[in-house]
Amino acid sequence: MTTVGWLQISLLFLAVLFVIKPLGLYMARVFSGERTVLSPVLGPIEEGFYRMSGVDPNKEQGWLAYTLAMLAFSLVGFLALYAMLRFQAHLPLNPQGFPAVPADLAFNTAVSFVTNTNWQNYAGETTLSHFSQMAGLTVQNFLSAATGMALAVAFTRALARSKVTTLGNFWVDMVRATLYVLLPLSIVVALAFVAMGLPQTLDASVTVRTLEGANQVISLGPVASQEAIKQLGTNGGGFFNVNAAHPFENPTVWSNYLNIFAMLSISAALVYSFGQMVGNRRQGWALISAMAILLIAGVTVTYWAEAQGNPILTALGVDPALGNMEGKEVRFGQAMTALYAAVTTGLSDGGVNGMHGSFTGLGGLVPMFLMQLGEVLPGGVGSGLYGMLVFALLSVFVAGLMVGRTPEFLGKKIEGREMTFAMLAVLILPLVILGFTAISAMLPFAVASIGTAGPHGLSEILYAYTSTAGNNGSAFGGLTGNTPWYNTTLGIAMLLGRFAYVVPVMAIAGSLAAKVKAPASAGTFPTDGPLFVGLLIGIILILGGLQFFPALALGPVVEHLAMLAGQTF
């Protein structure tokens, strides 16, 4: 580890900290229906959408109607994207002449982008047409991110209001998230990416003469526009196969900085919006503090592990001074690769600028563990916030049991109904991840897809289901996922990780909204101070550690210990 590396990491976090408050205040105004600087331009467009679709923006929905609207919208999005991929050969903007995407891969891809997972069992530059990339994937990048933001705002209203039966209007929240937040920011970031050298063209490719005198065909396309919403919406799906390690997706250290900054900005600022909307900004800062502590710890461990180098190579006489550079781009190095890996897995983004499967045993464990913590550091746009609020409810419930008082959060009593739904949501991840991993580890045709035997092979399978169930989308590398088994089961994992989780969360929101919001009293456990932050971190670590440690012990932990002993498998 170097001083320069830590300076790079610190400046990035400071830049994100600088925008949290202004962006958070802006989003709070947007979702509260207040006038913003963009209202004169976007207001008439917003009203036009409501008129065309027959939506009454003043009519709110209860939790069940809100959830059903979200599910119906997601189903239509899935069917439209699936059809687009299956009929790709007959649609316009296909200069490469790509054929239809096979049924199982089209299912996996459609589910992936509708659930904001963006897991990719294909190479974009050799599989998808420009039309599929733009009208299919990029559109879903906007809509799936807006859906997550809408759900988080609905949960926030449940805590802010007192004795009501409605949480807002899903269609209004989704339109505002897209129109006022995602679209303007994406235009700015896309233009910045173009200035940094990312292609933005409808040409299929360009043929160039190499230094050796041979001809090489280089794929092109509308990369910058997809890259912008890929990061701002914490989607992570890349235009090219190697994602942000590709020089056309991430050419320089400055584009790398902008990638990470764009990933963090909306998710972190939305937590501040939560504090603003519930009338207590300290609550937002408390959640941000817990997220930041765990995320910085993940960055630190990953950076330290990669900077130490590979003990096996060191024993063979390789100088460890440069650390472990396998799977990393020289233009980024260990510091910015470790930062990218921790942020993308703590965020539910899924983009990568290095191959996680090439990290050391300990370095590869951290990204996997960050996903297993529930994707709340700060998680996907919206999904990270409502996931963190579930952990907050569990924390105050535990605190109430410890001191013998009725647990409360923001004036709402937390009772058996809320805890039942909270545990149902929290148990979805280990059930899906560990269940599918165990089955795949026993099936010969599933094991045949791993690239490396031994504990690293188990890590490949475990990482795949962790990433998909957590709606992250990053890949460990080595696993051949484009098979009927993995396309189908990984798709099911994505569906359960998104919708089987969010339905009980919305049920909690409906229950909390109907409760009276009581003022704080002398016996109220404060949820905006360091004691609560510590308890919240402990609950997150316990739930993640206790559920997944046995599986991690058989995979990356064994690999780490073997590397220290100089052994290979």
Attribute tags:
569 residues, 21 helices, 4 strands, globular
Give the proportion of residues in helices.
55-70%
* Shape field: globular
Distance between the termini: 28 Å
Q: Structural class of the helix and strand makeup?
A: mainly alpha
Major β-sheet profile: 2 strands, antiparallel
Strands of the widest sheet, in order across it, are 1-2
How large, in whole angstroms, is the Cα Rg? 23 Å
The H-and-E topology, N to C, reads as HHHHHHHEEHHHHHHHEEHHHHHHH
Mean pLDDT: 92
The fraction of residues in strands falls at under 5%
Membrane topology: Multi-pass membrane protein
Keywords: Cell membrane, Ion transport, Membrane, Plasmid, Potassium, Potassium transport, Transmembrane, Transmembrane helix, Transport
GO molecular function: P-type potassium transmembrane transporter activity; potassium ion binding
Subcellular location: Cell membrane
